[in-house]
Amino acid sequence: MGKRFGVHSNVWAVVIAIAAILAVPALVTAQTTSGVAGNKDKGAAPKKTWVSRTADGQPDLQGYWTSLSFTAMERPAKYGNREFLTDEEAAQIHKEGIQHSYEFTFNDLAETPVYDATVYALSAWQEGVAPNRRTSLVVDPPDGRIPPLTPEAAKVREAARKAGPNQDYADPNAPVKADVAEDLNLGERCLSFGGPPILPGAYNSNFQIVQGTGYVMIEYEWNNEIRIIPLDGRPQLSQGLHRWHGNSRGHWEGNTLVVETSNFRPGATFQGANAKTLKMTEYFTRTDQNTIEYKFTIDDPSTWTRPWSAIVPLSHMQGPIPEYDCSENNNDAVNILAGARATEKAAAEKAKNISLR
Amino acid sequence: MRVALAVAMLVGALGLLVTTLPVQAHHAFAATFDTSKPVVVHCVITKVELINPHSWFWCDEKAAGGNVTNWGFEGGSPNSLIRHGVTKNTIPVGTELIIQGYQSKAFEHKGVGVNMTFPDGRKFLFGGSAPGAESEVATLTKDEIAPTSKDDSKK
Question: Which residues in B lie closer than 8 A to residue A173 (C-beta atoms)?
């Protein structure tokens, strides 16, 4: 219970901060210019930007967006170094992404051990996912694959996998090593669903961007997690301060919002990166009324052998974002722990029966 | 249509494990539910909880001898349901349903819902909102509708 209120006090602090941001006069958008931004992506068509401005002249990124996507994080081998699909291929993959859910539902009605993503309306296309011409979200290295881990990071990850409470569920049939609630992962405990970066999740991958003078606020639907990004050039926090979503500082480069983040919290980093050395840079560019091109670059020399980048298209969606009270009704913590005990008990009885024979 | 859509969405899905999406979900299916225990329960709704991180649907199953068992089925996050106009009253208490799902590892009468079907065979879909989904209603076969043992429910 104490933990629950601890979380809430943080949330209230953020809510108050947002209220302060929202207290600025309403932003009036006016479409002013459109043009072509510089393009660093080999083989890509020139990147168009669509610029609407807030009352104080910032490019307007405000609204409700979803990061859901049918595009794989890493590029399937069949595409090699090919970065883009044809329009026909992109349309086909999008269609298959939708259709596959239907086939799944009706071909594997009772045997496939996953939730039904089609019949019950949480499929990505229902939340506004748009076709994507990229063959992978990862755009650098050129092969579209996340670079190898450093030897040290690989050792740490393997040790954690062996000793840890099966938090990544890499093997869905492995017993869950969870003795107490603290052994559950951060999401299962409703503490944080992570980020940055912004990536497609299974569902609820939606968020709202609000801009006030000197700030940008990003609220994730999942767990109502909030990032408040100052744009006034203030220095980073001291190295001893660590936050769930790291600490971000933003600035504009042309029509692109650039957000640099460090000061991550150990145990709450993207893919287990080293909180001390991880630096992330995000680039938000509105390319048309309904799309933000969102690029992020991960630089953590103690975890990956080189920096790498990915581009996730953010599609406009209908708001608002409903409240997401997670801790208050989190039956899963109980059910997972009880499941772990039931599995242990069954295994013990099986062993006992074998020894009696 | 609104009711059809609402019912269709009510149990809710957790993971888009069938797509190429990088999957992130609130919790892993296998941590809580037993894939070797599919269940089909004919029951009457007693309570609907549109709560995060997962909705829960409670219903009474009446055995031939008159004994009543209250089941609880986990569904998806209500946020998408709410976004599509579903409310707590969309499936009123007293609604008769066939719920297909998987049993919990620890609790005999808890599970995760996969499908909801009305006794007359109507299985609710999204209607025409999806390419290729022309029909609002699909009909299950008699075998699919009939109460079955756990083994029989495997298709």
Answer: 30
- Are both A219 and A342 inside the same structural domain? yes
| Nearest Cα to Cα of residue A271 among A150, A182, A115 | A150
Instruction: For an interface test with A, give the residue of B51, B82, B83 to mutate (most A CBs within 10 A).
Output: B83
Full residue range of the structural domain in which residue B62 is found: 2-12+33-145
Q: Express each pLDDT in A139-160 by its tens digit.
A: 999 999 999 999 999 998 888 7
**Same domain for A60 and A183:** yes
**Same structural domain, A211 and A349:** yes
- Find the CATH number of the domain harbouring B49: 2.40.50.140
B41 at A interface, C-beta within 8 A: no
pTM: 0.77
The total domain count for chain B is 1
Residue A153: predicted pLDDT: 96
- Closest Cα of chain A to B110: distance in Å? 9
Report chain A's mean pLDDT, rounded to a whole number: 80
Whole-number pLDDT of residue A123 = 55
Out of A127-136, A185-194, A312-321, pick the least confident.
A127-136
Determine, yes or no, domain membership for B115. yes
Q: Residue A41: is its pLDDT beyond 60?
A: no
Domain span including residue A181: 2-84+134-356
